[in-house]
């Protein structure tokens, strides 16, 4: 395998490793987002974005070259003289195999690169949604606690007003009884005075 195809195969292995690492279930999306937003990785991405784009262009060119080589050795235009070169068919098949291998390696490297970038984007969006959901949850819990607090205070206030009303009612009842007692005593006194005046009419003179 030549140097460029060895580099493409190494890139393919790195992409497979990163995709498997991103799919591990015990690493949460918020933790991945903190890693993505770290200073070192942000600096690396900001400076390496241009080189990554160049790498994609190189992969596309190598993919086109692999496709051309595959079509070249797959056609029936290759005339083989078995008399002068008995191993020509095997040599042709070997070149076809190498061309197909290079085509598949480069194609998978391109596809996995797109999958890797999409996976990073989805993990970042999921981490943002989780953080937003947690914020809404804390806000809802705070609103619920405040509502329960206000309801308790309102209930205590109503209980206090009811207690005050009961005390005023008892006080008014006592005052009413005292007034009725005084009225009864006044009536008795007036009746006794009337009886005295009837019995002794000359008292008022």
UniProtKB/TrEMBL annotation:
Its main location: endoplasmic reticulum. It is found in: Endoplasmic reticulum membrane; Membrane. The chain crosses the membrane at residues 6-28, 40-64, 102-120. Keywords: Endoplasmic reticulum, ER-Golgi transport, Membrane, Protein transport, Transmembrane, Transmembrane helix, Transport. The keyword Transport applies. InterPro entries: BAP29/BAP31, BAP29/BAP31_N. May play a role in anterograde transport of membrane proteins from the endoplasmic reticulum to the Golgi. This is Endoplasmic reticulum transmembrane protein.
């Amino acid at each position: 395998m030549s140097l460029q195809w060895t580099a493409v195969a190494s890139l393919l292995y790195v992409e497979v490793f990163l995709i498997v690492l991103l799919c591990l279930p015990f690493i949460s999306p918020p933790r991945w987002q903190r890693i993505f937003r770290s200073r070192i990785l942000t600096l690396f991405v900001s400076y390496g974005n241009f080189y990554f784009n160049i790498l994609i262009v190189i992969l596309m060119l190598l993919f086109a070259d692999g496709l051309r080589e595959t079509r070249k050795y797959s056609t029936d235009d290759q005339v083989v003289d078995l008399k002068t070169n008995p191993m020509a068919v095997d040599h042709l098949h070997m070149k076809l195999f190498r061309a197909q291998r290079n085509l598949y390696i480069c194609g998978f490297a391109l596809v996995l690169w797109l999958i890797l970038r999409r996976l990073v984007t989805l993990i970042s969006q999921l981490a943002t949604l989780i953080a937003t959901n947690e914020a809404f949850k804390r806000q809802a819990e705070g609103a619920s606690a405040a509502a329960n607090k206000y309801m308790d205070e309102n209930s205590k206030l109503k209980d206090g007003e009811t207690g005050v009303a009961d005390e005023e009612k008892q006080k008014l009842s006592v005052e009413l009884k005292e007034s009725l007692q005084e009225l009864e005593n006044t009536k008795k006194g007036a009746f006794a005075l009337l009886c005295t005046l009837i019995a002794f009419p000359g008292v008022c003179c």
